[in-house]
Amino acid sequence: MAVSVVIAGGGTGGHIEPALALADALREAEPQTVITCLGTERGLETRLVPMRGYDLALIPPVPLPRGLTLELSSVPGRLRTAVHATGQILARVHADVVVGLGGYVATPAYLAARRARVPIVVHEANARPGLANRIGALLTRQVYTGQPGTRLLHGRYLGIPIRRQIAGLDRLALADKARTHFGLQPDLPVLLVTGGSQGAASLNRAVLDAAETLRDSGIQVLHVVGPKNADVQVPPGPVPYVVLPYLDRMELGYAAADFALCRAGAMTCAELTAIGLPAAYVPLPHGNGEQRLNAEPIEEAGGGLIIDDADLSAEWIGETLLPILLDGELVAAMSQAAAATGNRAADTELAALVLEIGRTAPPSRPRRTPGSAGRPGGSRHRGRDGGPAGRVGR
Questions:
Q1: What is the phi/psi pair of residue 124, to 5°?
Q2: Secondary structure of 235-251 in HEC code, one letter for each residue
Q3: What is the pLDDT of residue 62?
Q4: Which segments in the chain show pLDDT lower than 50?
Q5: I need a labelling partner for 236 at 20 to 30 A (CA). Which of 16, 140, 262, 346 fits?
Q6: Are residues 374 and 20 in contact, defined by beta-carbon separation less than 8 angstroms?
């Protein structure tokens, strides 16, 4: 009988991408696996999950205030509602195991699973665990982390599931094709600049100010500026400087590059280390400082360097980054060091663990027979009461 897996990882890309990478690995390992993704109507998952061919079940969001505010008084009632809705979904799909990756949907998922005696698996991508996964770690011993130094009860280091298109990337084999695709020359170093899906103003400003310095030194630039900066233009010259508002096929950008200048989100760090692309990491200057923690093990291993957002400038690029880019032996050594800290197989390893737990779960619930759910073409999401809510992305 097929194992029924419920994946709770909605909200932001940092939760959704590893959730979808896990779903892909589950489907690859056992095509009959029934996969249901939990989400809320306000998250990116309403678009991304159906696009990848998975069932999406919606529950009410329960954002947890960071401080003592009036919103705190409404949390218990909202949480009860979300846990009840999640419990109905677990019963409907005959869940054998619940996998939580943090975010708004994870806490209701953990509590509903505990109530229904469904085995729980927790995966924490960031170096500093969020509240949802700290709660989840109290309810199971199956806790896995994406960073080796993450302090989380029962946590064991595994790495972060990333897309197979990136995890299986051979940068050297694809380099010439990727550079031709972007109009880059095959024999000059390439700096990839990306601030994430929306771009990063400080990165854009510093690199654009350093454009002539980089080009005069023979450094090509592949600069993903973000969709809000689509009007950015750089005058043509003998050394290519390619500006893109967005890059759908990031694996091609990675293959074309020798070095990256980027933020230090958990997924970015996981992808770059998995493929051995060294980088200068510019942690987001807001939040709880987790991005710096994500990049510190890479810097310590010699696979990258960290520069504070406030210190990033055209002068820093010319004085510090440029000498590195011009030293081919140093870049090659940093590439090897970066690869030594990554894990290309985190998706398949986590999938194997989840399937084993699902197969050995106590037979307190009837198993689902294989159907279209969780398979391409079966991407129907569900309303808050567990009933049909219509097609998504059509």
A1: -115, 115
A2: CCCCCCEEEECCCCCHH
A3: 73
A4: 67-68, 369-394
A5: 262
A6: no
**DSSP-derived pairing of the beta strands 34-39 and 190-194:** unpaired
How many C-beta neighbours within 10 Å does residue 77 have? Answer: 10
Same fold, 4-164+345-391 and 169-340: yes
Q: What is the pLDDT of residues 295-325, one digit of tens each?
A: 999 999 999 999 999 999 999 999 999 999 9
Are the beta carbons of 163 and 24 closer than 8 angstroms?
A: yes
Q: How far apart (Å, rounded) are the C-alpha atoms in residues 34 and 238?
A: 53
CA pair distance 342, 196, nearest whole angstrom: 20
Q: What angle do CA 61, 66, 68 make, to 5 degrees?
A: 110
Residue 366 pLDDT: 52
Residue 379 CA to residue 72 CA, distance in Å, equals 35
Q: Residues 99, 18: contact at Cβ < 8 Å?
A: no
Q: Are 56 and 392 in contact (CB under 8 A)?
A: yes
**What is the SS3 assignment for 13?**
helix
d(CA 19, CA 250): 18
Q: Single out the residue of 335, 289, 271, 282 nearest to residue 305, CA to CA.
A: 282
Domain residue limits, the chain? 4-164+345-391, 169-340
Q: Show the DSSP H helices in the chain as ranges.
A: 13-29, 45-51, 75-92, 106-116, 131-136, 164-167, 171-182, 201-209, 211-216, 250-256, 266-275, 290-301, 314-316, 322-325, 328-340, 346-359
Report the candidate in 52, 19, 135 with the shortest Cα–Cα distance to residue 381. 52
What global pTM score does this model have? Answer: 0.85
Count of CB atoms situated within 10 Å of the CB of 340: 13
> Any idea which architecture 4-164+345-391 has in CATH?
3-Layer(aba) Sandwich (3.40)
Do 184 and 220 form a contact (C-beta atoms < 8 A)?
yes
- 50: Cβ–Cβ under 8 A, 6 or more apart, which residues? 56, 379, 381, 391, 392, 393
